[in-house]
Amino acid sequence: MNQIKIGAFISERRKAKGWTQSQLAEKLGITDKAVSKWETGVSHS
To answer: How far apart are CA 2 and CA 23, in angstroms?
Structure first.
C-alpha cells in the first residue's frame, strides 16, 4: 500500500467511528498534526 491509500484508509475508518483527528490522536497518544500528516500522505515514517 502506498501512503495515499493508507491515509485514505485511516481517514475512512476514523470518520466511520465519528472521531475527529484530535480524538484519534488522543487515543493513540500522538498529536492531531501527526494524524493529519498520515491522512494526507505527508508522513515519511
So the answer is: 25
pTM for this entry: 0.81
Task: Tell me the three state secondary structure of residue 19.
Answer: coil
Per-residue pLDDT in tens (0 to 9) along the chain, 45 residues: 688 899 999 999 999 999 999 999 999 999 999 999 999 988 555
Domains defined for the chain, CATH in brackets: 3-40 (1.10.260.40)
Say which residues have a Cβ less than 8 Å from residue 37's Cβ, sequence separation at least 6: 43
